[in-house]
Amino acid sequence: MAPHVIIRTRMGTIAGIAALALIGIGLALPAIAPRALIQDLFTILTLLTLAQLWNLLAGYGGLVSVGQQAFVGIGAYAMFAGVILLGLDPVLAIPLGGIAALALAIPTAFFAFRLQGAYFAIGTWVIAEVTRLLVAQWKALGGGTGTSLPREATSDIIGVESIRALFGVREAAARDILAYWLALALAALTIAAIYWLLRNRLGLALAAVRDNTEAAKSVGVDARRIKWAVFLIAAFMTGLVGALIYVQTARISPDAAFSVIDWTAYVIFIVVIGGIGRIEGPILGVIVFYILQSTLADYGAWYLLTLGLIAIAVMLFAPRGLWGLLSDKTGLHLFPVQRRLEGIDLKGGK
Amino acid sequence: MILLETKGLTASYGQFRALFGVDVSLSAGETVAIIGANSAGKSTLLRSITGVLRNDPSMVLHRGEAIGALPPEIVMQRGIAMVPEGRKLFPSLSVEENLKIGGQVRRAIGPWNLEAIYDLFPILREKRNVPGTALSGGQQQMVAIGRALMSNPEVLLCDEISLGLAPVVIRDIYAAMPRIKASGAAIIVVEQDIGRALSVADRVYCMMEGRVTLSAPAATVSRDAIHTAYFGDAA
Amino acid sequence: MIWIDTLVQGILLGGLYALFAAGLSLVFGIMRLVNLAHGDMIIFAAFAILLITGSLGLNPFLAALIAAPLMFALGWALQRFVLNHVLGKDILPPLLVTFGLSVALQNGMLEAFSADSQRIPAGPLESASVNLGIVTVGWMPLLTFATAIAVIVGLNQIFYRTALGRAFRATSDDPVTASLMGIAPKGIFAIATGLAMVVVTIAALYLGMRANFDPSIGPARLIYAFEAVIIGGLGSLWGTLAGGIIIGVAQTMGAAINPEWQILSGHIAFLIVLLIRPRGLFPRAVD
Lengths: 350, 235, 287
What we know:
The complex is a heterotrimer of chains A (about 350), B (about 240) and C (about 290). Chain B has a single domain, classed as Rossmann fold (3-Layer(aba) Sandwich), CATH 3.40.50.300. Chain B is about 35% helix and about 25% strand. Chain B has helices at about 40-50, 70-75, 95-100, 115-120, 120-125, 135-150, 165-175, 175-180, 195-200, 225-230, and strands at about 1-15, 15-25, 30-35, 60, 65, 80-85, 155-160, 185-190, 205-210, 210-215. Chain B is globular, with a radius of gyration of 17 Å. Chain C is mostly helical. A two-stranded antiparallel ribbon of chain C has the order 1-2. In chain C, β1 (about 130) and β2 (about 135-140) form a beta hairpin. Chain C is globular, with a radius of gyration of 19 Å. The N and C termini of chain C lie far apart (about 45 Å). Chains in contact: A-B, A-C, B-C. The interface of A and C includes residues 58, 122, 127, 307 and 319 of A.
C-alpha cells in the first residue's frame, strides 16, 4: 500500500452516528423529562459549549485566556439591551450577543496580543474587568445592581406558545424547554464547527502555530492571522452562549455576568480535568464536573477547593486529562483530528 | 589510573540514535582528542558524560563509579567541568561574574583563580566589567575556558573550542593549552580541526556516525588511518 | 491644593502596588513563570500575620518577622514539589496549576477564616500623620512607600552583589549551562519562589494594616501587580515601582473625580501604556 495520510477512524464513524442519535434523543427528551432535569441539562450544555470554545483557544490555539467572562457578560448585556432598549424578542436578540462579543474581541485582541504567553492570560482578565466596570456604569441597564427582563418581554417569547401546546406545560417550563433546545443546538453546532475547522487546513495551521510560531511562519502559516481568527470565532460563539444563558436566567448583574469563577474557572477546570487539546475532553469533563457538583454542592467552598486541587492533580499526574488516560488505554478516538501516516514501515536506528 | 570512561555508551534523540556503543577512556593527566566530521556523535558523547543527556548509570564511569544517570550539576560537582559548544556565556553576567560562577559551587584546591585566569588570558583583565556577550568570539571562548577552570576541575571537557574562530585567534587559544595541561587537569578536546587537536593530544579517537572508528597514540597515528576513520572507506 | 494631595496619595499608594508586584516580577524574571495565585498568597500571608498577632499578642511587624520564614518554606515547597514538575516549554501547565491553586486557596481561606472583612491592628500608627508643608500624609502610606524602596534596593543587592544573585541571573539566562556550572536550576527556582513569598509577606503586612481584607480580594491584587510589572517593563524592579506609582496615581485621580471610577482609571492607565509602549517603560535589553 502506498503511504497516505488518513484522519478517519472506525470508532470515529460510529461516534458520528451515535452523536446524531444523541441529538435526536436530546430533542425529544422534554416530552418525558421533568423540568429540573431540563434545567440541569441546559446548564451542562452551555458549560460544554463554553468549554469547547475555551479548548479551541487554549488547547488548539495556545491562547490561554482567563477573560472569557468578558464575552459571556457583554453578550448577555447586548441581549438585554436589545430587549429593553429596542423592544426585541429575547430569542431574536441572542445574535446581538454574538455581534457585541465580536466587537469587543477586536480591541481585546489588539491589546492582549501585545502580551506574550502567561501575560496574555492576565491581560484578557484585565479587559474583562474593565468591561465589567464600564457596564456597571450603564444606568439604563441597572448599573452596578443589574436588572431583569421585563415581564411583557418574557411572556410572549417566540415559539413558547407552540411548546406549551405541544407538551402541555406551563409557560415557565416551556421557556426552559426552548432555552434547552437552543443550548442543544448551539452545543452541537459548536462541536461540529470545531471538528470541521480542525479537520481542515486551519487544524494543521493551528497545530503548527501552537507548537512553534517561528517555524510555522517559515512554512507560510501566518500565525497572527490564525490567532486573530480563532480568538474572534471563540468570542462570537461565547457571546451567543452568554446571551442564551441570560435569556433563561432573565435577571442580570455585572458581577454575575462577568464572573471569572462561573464563566472561566469552571470552564477551565472542565477542560483540564476532561483533557485539554481534545474534543472529547470537555465532553468527559463536563460530565465529571456535573457529578462533582451534584455531590459536593452542599459543601459550599469545599467544592471549589476540591475542584482546584483536582485540577492541580490532573496537571501533575495526567496532563492530558481523563480522556488522555482513557484514550491511551483503549486507543479510542471519537473525534479523530490527528493525521496518521499509514502504509509505510518506520524503522528506528540502523 | 583511568579517571573517566564510557562503556558501550548509546544515546538517542527521540527516534534518532546518535551513539552506538562508544568506548572511550581518559587517564589522569592525559589529554585526549576526539575528532570526526559534523554529526559524528562527538558533542553527543560530551553531553552524555556531563549529564545533559541522561543514560544508563553504568555507561559512564568516573573513578569507577557509575555516573551516567546523574544530573549535570552533580557531575560537575564531582570535578568534571565543561567548555560548552558555542561558548554559552551568560549575557546578564559581566566577564568577571562569568568567571566567578564557574567556581561558585565547586572550588577544589588548585592553581586556578581569577588572577591565574587573567594571567592566562590578559585581555580578560581589561574587559572584566564588560558583559560577557559583548566580547569578540575568541575572547568569549577565553572566558568560557576560564569559567570551566575556575572550579579547578579534575577533568576538563572542551567542545569545539575552535569552531567559528579565525586561525590567529585559534592559535592564541591553543597556546594556553600547555599551561592548562601542566596544571594537572585531564582534558578531552572535541575538535573538527584535526591538526590543532593532534598538536595537544596524547591519544586520539576518531568518530564516525556514532561509532569510534580509530583509537591511537597521537604521536604515531598516520594521516591515512585518520582519513579512513574520518570519512569511511569509500572516501 | 487638592490635586497635589491626590497626587501624593497616589504615589504613596503606588508603593503598595510595587510591593505586590515585586514578588511576581522576581519569579517571572528567573523562571518565566506567572503565578496566578500570587494575589491569593498575599491574602493568605495577611491572614497568617493576623493569626500570629492574635494568638501571640505580638506587634504586626514582629508577627511578619515570624511569618516570613514560614512563607519562605511554603514557597520553597510549592516550587519544589509542584511547580518544578510542570515547568517547561509549554506555558499552559504552570498557568493552569497556579489557577487551580488560586481557586483552591481562596475557598480554603473562605472555609478557614469566613468571608468577614479583617484588619491587622496597627495601633496608633493607623491614624498617625505628618505635615509636610503642602500636604499632610499618613505615616502608614509613607512607611509603605519607604518599605517598597527598601525591598527593591534589597532585592537588587541580592541580584547584583551576591553569589546567589549571580546564580539567579545565570539560571534565568540559560538553565542548562547553569547546571554545567554545578548550579541545580530547580533548587534555584525553589529559593526564588521562597524569596518571592518573603516579599509577599511584607506586602501582606502593609495591605492588612492599611485596609480591610477578606479571602476574595486576591485576584484584584494580582491584577494590580501584573499591571505594575507590565508598565515597568519585564524584569526591571525600579520599573515596577514606576508602574505601581502610575496605577496608584491613576486610581486616586479617578476616585477624586468620581469614586466609582477609582479601579477603572487604574486599568485604563495600564491600557494606555500598553498601547503606546507595548514593552513597558523600562524594558530590559536582553530578551
